[in-house]
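Table S7 (text form). Paired inputs.
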Amino acid sequence: MLQNKLAGVGVALITPFVDGRVDYKALARMIDYVIEGGVDYIVALGTTAETPTLYMPERAVIAMYITDHIRGRVPLVIGCGGNSTSEVLDQLREFDLRGADAILSVTPYYNKPSQEGLYQHFRTVAEHSPLPVILYNIPGRSGVNMTAETTLRCARDFDNIIGIKEASGNIAQIQEIIDRRPEGFLVLSGDDGMTLDIMQRGGNGVISVAANAFPKKFMQCVNFAKEGNFARAEEEYCQLDEAVKALFKEGNPTGVKCALSVMGKIGPDMRLPLIPGSESLREEFAALIARYDLK
């Protein structure tokens, strides 16, 4: 069952750049690094991938490259979202999705649709998607919150909507989805720091930023949580807590790219309007990585 494969940790993969261009050699290293670190699956072309700065042809090539380099080692989820429903349908037609297992589709941003508008948007996406759909609610970036009722309505009405990445930070809303969801519907944290709390409440895992930089350590925490050993999971997470908080001090993916650059995995380059992490953040990561042995 696909939902079982997409429980645990999906890594929201970064896009490395060099001199303004996609650094495919570094991208290949990142794919190998997170797979060797034990992540359950990879999510391409999400927020952490700087997808808004990628041209549509670049997105299509990146999706194909990631698919080819994974070579079936782990499942793959590809981001297909936007604030124009017709543009999302264009992505579904133009991307080569044959090697992917599902798509992740964000709530339309900036234009702030109503709850009925959100439902109609995802109805249209579900009806046209050749793959199962994971919803993505992130009101801090999109400007609109998809309520528990709208999420549950989508989950009940469309068999190929199989889960949600919930990044509202509203634990009561997330709990309502967990309590009232149809059987098999995934509830995934969109916030690394809330992962263990959501799993303890019955959620299924996380689509993680931190797993880019610290996959082995992060997987240790979540694997204990999967076993129901939350005391040990919390104990392990204590060694990551400071570093995870530092990842978001200057925004995402600025922080995680800064950490990976300090670790020598990628260069620090980003595309405007995002800029590399500050020297003080680099120094903080160097100290935290050494103190907690996070390499």
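Next pair, protein 2 of 2.
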Amino acid sequence: MKLSVIILNYNVRYFLELCLRSVESAIANIEAEVIVVDNNSKDDSCDMVKRIFPKVKLIENKENLGFSKGNNIGVLEAKGEYLCVLNPDIVVAEDTFSKILEFSKNKEKLGAIGCKLIDGAGRFLPESKRNIPFVSAALKKLLGDSKHYYANHLKENESGKVDVLVGAFMFMRRELYNKVGGFDEDYFMYGEDIDLSYKILKAGYQNYYFSASSIIHFKGESTLRDKNYARRFYGAMQIFYKKHFKKNILFDMLVWFGIRAVYLLRKAPVKKTKNVFQYVLISNRNIDNLKLVLPKNLIIQDKLADFEDKTEVVLDAETLTYKEIINIIESKSHVKKWTYKILPNNCNFILGSDDAISRGEVIKF
């Protein structure tokens, strides 16, 4: 088998379904398997997978084991030559995996590959490519300067070597994953992708950022950015330094004070009230039920046109490919007055997210 796609899920049933439908299209011509590991979700994620995706291998954990252990459990069941660790709030294009498999050919000492991540509004996510977070870079990031934290030697549309990739999408040989010990289970959430990337580098392999395939990462869905985020993230950084670098008392003190300051001052994201003038469905079919749940009149047309007013664009995956949907959202990211929802193929809901911080929105019809 060529590829095993590992998806760790926790309480994001509708985003998981969209993810699985996009993955299903992306592996249509690849000898591949999909493994969903559920970390004891309280929604109906598992029932949905069993009912709609019977070919998917579902592993139901009886407790939330965290990101690292959950993914390691999935990899233990994998049979593919390559692995792709994927967040459940990701949408891939039909050619994402085939492009990366082609890119991986003839590369000596190939480590992990990441691709270009955009949020639900089409904006580039800089964590797609990062540097090793040495103490100076981490301190600057703590103080609000992320210039040295991200791999700015490569432009967002330029593929090349990088040090650190993001755990939302990590593609590598299964043999390498096992060789370096997979995700370190001392990390519950955050930092484990940095740790794995660094272990790969230390083992003599090279990680790559691949810009020729854009995918959507709704981001706020799988890791809600509340005021505890800074404490969890920098706690993970302390584990990383303890494992890989000499103990730095100054850094520990600054992080201790910084975490507490951010914890006290940071406010939980507030859901913004949207002032949408109209909804536009890009589709070649009429969907009466959708008209009933949207608060504004729904315009249906088969191509995207220019709209002067605040518009929510609903992209129908029965009419458009997922690659076309991703391309539309990315190409129109500069149009600030537009927001987006995706109508997955064979589904009775639309979903989307307007930024990379707060939770997305699901509308059922």
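The first strand starts at residue 3 and ends at 9.
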